[in-house]
């Protein structure tokens, strides 16, 4: 993938095929412009979130609308507005496949399936007291969605953060966002060949209250603060869940 939103859009735009529906939700204006251009060039049937597809959120429930379809009071197991958007894209894809005669869609089964989906390590509460949340956010967009969910669903302004990352990730901008909801910022690393050394992270980030953690498993198991968010990498979260008894 490229380094800019525009480059990434060009790479991912390779999925756009002539006279074929393509369903997308793109927030960056440069990337959206490129996807729209590719859709036009290929004479594809572009189906765009917020233009053709809409959702209306009310707390944890939402209503889905597309064409003449309206599905009310949908509720997901996964938290976050971004997950509602993802679900809306999946529903739209199934509707398009049904209209093309490729699948015979049972709407009740589809709704049951959408509402029962879980994703381990994505805004997952693993402990109630003290509150512990794990999330594999590993780029700026997923960090932004994570922060929004912490505020809107957990109603927490501040948490302690335990952070580890892999090489090649935009850790400075990720941490700059996380600072908004951070009390103490704990930095660690984990046993993975692409893991970024904790000292490298510690030296690079600009956080006033930051602490190095040598043994993340022991730290988590002995944590007695008000609330801990564990994030930075899906690989990190996988190791934490494999080694920590919550």
UniProtKB/TrEMBL annotation:
It comes from the Bacteria. The keyword Zinc does not apply. InterPro entries: Folylpolyglutamate_synth, Mur-like_cat_sf, Mur_ligase_C, Mur_ligase_C_dom_sf. Residues 121-215 form the Mur ligase C-terminal domain. One of its GO terms (molecular function) is tetrahydrofolylpolyglutamate synthase activity. SUPFAM superfamilies: MurD-like peptide ligases, catalytic domain, MurD-like peptide ligases, peptide-binding domain. Its EC number is 6.3.2.17. It catalyses: (6S)-5,6,7,8-tetrahydrofolyl-(gamma-L-Glu)(n) + L-glutamate + ATP = (6S)-5,6,7,8-tetrahydrofolyl-(gamma-L-Glu)(n+1) + ADP + phosphate + H(+). It holds the Pfam family Mur_ligase_C. One of its GO terms (cellular component) is cytoplasm. The keyword Nucleotide-binding applies. Keywords: ATP-binding, Ligase, Magnesium, Metal-binding, Nucleotide-binding. NCBIfam families: folC (TIGR01499). Belongs to the folylpolyglutamate synthase family. This is tetrahydrofolate synthase. The lineage of its organism: Bacteria, Bacillati, Bacillota, Bacilli, Bacillales.
